[in-house]
């Protein structure tokens, strides 16, 4: 049923920065296994939406429901523990560690990397790590320090790190930032290859990327819900056009 498929519900969420509403009674839902793209001009509130879902920012009104539970008052580590993981707009790959070690840390969900590195990779994580290396196309680069990767490869490693946590809901904030067309296409393929076991909320404003993903689109503007539909529907919408032309 529709209710059983519902994974995430953002329900009338307002985020208030001293009177300025970065989110203004914003609502959206995401089903199990669904990939959805959130677009909107700069400052629309897209990153604030991710911050709120992951518990970094507290809504002054509304709720975030994940798997039927109100998570909007939980601290970030508890939300991560429930199965949500976020990739930030700026890459957070640890430059001195190899690609494989970066994935190993993510698989342990352990930020105390200096402890983890000495211990080595637990057997239980090895399969996850090798599968992830294949999925993000970095198997050949597994032993290279993260800092030596090309920009696009770093982004793919980060998507891999988010996957390796085993989270059911992945939040990807501008995964194609700074990429050229070839890298952008590869990123779309990679996200489409994640399969139905994951739900993905992708934030981006690169329309060719959004088209390649072919996923349903939610449009935000000034912290509010503006429109929702297929990419073609959203493109044809006069309100959406007005928002982007006015930008
Ligand atoms: P987007 O990711 O869509 O570009 P953001 O969510 O980053 O938009 O920001 C939405 C609005 O909230 C912007 O106008 C931004 O300046 C403002 N904003 C974001 N974070 C803060 C903050 N910590 N304090 C005050 N205003 C903020
Ligand atoms: Mg942003």
From TrEMBL:
InterPro entries: ABC_AA/LPS_Transport (IPR051120), ABC_transporter-like_ATP-bd (IPR003439), P-loop_NTPase (IPR027417)
Tree of life domain: Bacteria
Keyword Transport: yes
Gene3D superfamilies (UniProt xref): P-loop containing nucleotide triphosphate hydrolases
Keywords, ordered alphabetically: ATP-binding, Nucleotide-binding, Transport
CDD domains from the UniProt entry: ABC_Mj1267_LivG_branched (cd03219)
Example of a GO MF term: ATP binding
Domain ABC transporter: 8-247
A Pfam family this chain is assigned to: ABC_tran
PANTHER family the record matches: CONSERVED COMPONENT OF ABC TRANSPORTER FOR NATURAL AMINO ACIDS-RELATED (PTHR45772), HIGH-AFFINITY BRANCHED-CHAIN AMINO ACID TRANSPORT ATP-BINDING PROTEIN (PTHR45772:SF8)
Protein name per the record: ATP-binding cassette domain-containing protein
Protein species of origin: Novosphingobium album (ex Liu et al. 2023)
